[in-house]
Amino acid sequence: MRVATSTRMASCILFALAFGSAHCFLPAKGSLARRHPSSTTSSPLQSSKPNDIFDSPGWAAIKQELDQVPVFSLANAEGQPIKYRIEKSNASFEVPLFYTHVSDALAELETAKENTPLPGMDISPYPLGDIFEMWAKDTAVIVPNKKSVIQAGAPPNVNAIGQQVPLFACMEIAQENESGRPVLPLFLELDDANDAVTQAVSFDGGREEDFEVVCLNLSEAVSQLANAKEDQNAFHFVPPASSLEHIRDYLSG
Fold first, then answer.
1. Model's pTM, two decimal places?
2. C-alpha distances in Å from residue 10, one per residue of 4, 207, 212, 214
3. I need a surface site. Which of 39, 44, 197, 229 has the fewest CB within 10 A?
4. Cβ neighbours of 150 (radius 10 Å)
5. Which residues constitute the signal peptide according to the record (predicted)?
6. Whether the Cβ atoms of residue 212 and residue 2 lie closer than 8 Å to each other
7. 139 vs 121: CA distance, rounded Å
8. CA 238, CA 63: separation in Å to the nearest integer?
9. What are phi and psi of 151, to 5 degrees?
């Protein structure tokens, strides 16, 4: 990661100036324990997260942006996400897991085929906006990429399941949209954020070390963006390049 730990808080302050408030990514305490996949249905988890953002004026635009980001889940032959038994707060529930990175979903698919094969099982993409709502209502688990979680500050032995989804942004590479408003890209992949910095420097000059990449988490970013004023920065969620490449290959195959 380009940014040093000692400068991360200062960069989050820059993000706050653009959107009103922000939080650095911090690894969640504790984690969820995953059991074997199941194709059965079950009662949803009780909601433990605030859902006021879904009634906010800004949510529609945020959802539209989030829906451009694919997340991946193991699915049965009918295309329905396969559920896993999750232990949380001494209770067990069955919910689908949605992976932010296609490589993690493919790895889980291979493991599931070996341990619990189901007819027609494969991975399938789903729009992040819909899945974020399910996550906020505790009816799904979004699993971030372990490498990204570690790059965001978590320890090397972290379990990605149960962690916040990290985002990476560089305040200096915001671009103007068609209406002249600055648009800030929020990357799910640090390498993609660093590549954007390299491209910006090649076009506009400067030194890469002067362009600081900061990290934040998805839920806090959505919450702050939902309550941002209309004249503040626009935004764009950028999915991992590998995820888009997988979908292109699938559609062209």
1. 0.77
2. 11, 19, 10, 9
3. 229
4. 18
5. 1-24
6. yes
7. 21
8. 13
9. -60, -25
Amino acid identity at 178: E
Name the token pair of 174.
Answer: 């915001």
Find where tokens 């984690």 sit: 31
How many Å apart are CA 151 and CA 165, to the nearest integer? Answer: 12
pLDDT 10s per residue in the chain (253 long)? 333 222 222 232 223 323 332 333 332 323 333 444 433 332 233 333 556 788 888 888 899 999 999 999 999 999 899 999 887 777 788 999 999 999 999 999 999 999 887 889 999 999 999 999 999 988 999 999 999 999 999 999 999 998 999 999 988 887 777 777 778 899 999 999 999 889 888 887 788 888 889 998 999 889 888 877 665 657 889 999 999 999 888 888 6
| Residues 129, 50: Cα–Cα separation, whole Å | 16
Report d(CA 83, CA 186) in Å as an integer: 29
